[in-house]
Amino acid sequence: MNVLILSCNTGGGHNAAARAVAEVFRAHGDEAVVLDYLKLAGEKVSRTVGNVYVETVKIAPGLFGLLYKIGMLVSRLLRRSPVYYVNGKMAVYLAAYLKKHPADVIVMPHLYPAETITYMKRKGMKLPLTVAVMTDYTCIPFWEETDCDYYMIPHESLIPEIVKRGIPEEKLVVTGIPVAAACSEPWSGMPEESAAADTHTHSIVRKNAQQAAKKSLGLEEKQRYILVAGGSMGAGSIDRLIPALLRRIQREEHLILICGSNQKLEQRMRARFGRDARVTILGSVSNMPVYLHACDIIYTKPGGLTSTEAAVTEISIVHTKPIPGCETKNRSFFVKKGMSVTAYTEYGLVRRGMQLLHNPGKKNAMQRAQYRGMEKHSAEKIYQFVKAKI
Questions:
Q1: Beta 129-133 vs 150-153: how paired, if at all?
Q2: Under a CB-based contact definition with an 8 Å cutoff, are residues 115 and 140 in contact?
Q3: Domain 181-373 classification at class level
Q4: Which of 51, 114, 165, 372 is a plausible cystine mate for 144, CB 3.0–4.6 Å?
């Protein structure tokens, strides 16, 4: 089976989902190509679109939130949005690529290529099986104007919302959001029924996985680690959160700060806290699942992928300030299901986090909610579905 996975560089989550899907197809012996589809129109196009998105989120998240609201309004009022027509211009490039590199299925963890595919269908262009993958816990603007064969969605509770927006229910497949296999590896040797039935065994397996992850990262076995992450773009209230945490952490606790690709944030943090032995400062990391397994709690903005990775590893989650729009919906989803906590001030965030860190009952309750609420093998479910359809 030849699989083409189309993504875009508008945040790291879509690409992470693309890699997770490719990983499982390759593990089954199939060919999987992950492509930034905007590069088909040239490196400059991809770079410009990605940079505009990332810089807007970093510098003016409020503007991004406003654009999200406008998008929701446009999607209700117009039959076809400007987003559809702009992405329709990519059809000629994608058609040329498919002619040279035929695929049995196209998987899209991003809206933009799904818009292009829809345009191509309406122009009568021949296409293989088309599968969209939603990577947020809501139906973002413009999904409803796409026409993919199937839509892999994060959770069954989202079905009414998505159907209301106009996507037929028969096209929806509940798979969860695909994350790297490394997120769920500690459970790979234990049957799901056993882990669910035997809480004590499950706890031991998770503790052993944590110790192994600590060892691989060179971390102290007896230390408690607080992970602070802003996602691939380093967004969130990290500047104010770190000082607030340092005022509360105990002697056996240590902060690990991951700034993502936000180099300015990393420079500021190194200037302020680089000499503080209680803080480890990192930029982008390629082994995020290992840090999630090693640490006891994570402070993170509520991106769909980062939140899913965290919940699959069953680390305690404190959601920081979201980028207005889909991340607001993500945070609400997780909090309502008991899979994370949040607050609206740095003081409140620190207090909620310390309650989880120092109260085994609260921590265990969240882990149980995460175990029940998260699909640990989403990419495998996508593979099995596609295999049955080809």
A1: parallel
A2: no
A3: alpha beta
A4: 165
Residue 231: band (very low, low, confident or very high) from pLDDT cuts 50, 70, 90: low
Q: Which CATH class is domain 2-176+377-389?
A: alpha beta
The C-alpha atoms of residue 138 and residue 319 are separated, in whole angstroms, by 17
User: What type of residue is 169?
Assistant: E
Q: Three-state SS across 183-235?
A: HCHHHCCCCHHHHHHCHHHHHHHHHHHHHHHHHHHCCCCCCEEEEEECCCCCC
CB atoms within 10 A of CB 287: 14
- Rounded average pLDDT over 72-97: 86
* Of residues 152 and 41, more confidently modeled: 152
Q: How far apart are CA 262 and CA 330, in angstroms?
A: 22
Domain ranges of the chain: 2-176+377-389, 181-373
Q: How many Å from the N-terminal Cα to the C-terminal Cα in the chain? A: 8
Check: pTM over 0.85? Answer yes or no: yes
**Shared fold status for 2-176+377-389 and 181-373:** yes
Q: What is the pLDDT of residues 220-229, one digit of tens each?
A: 999 999 999 9
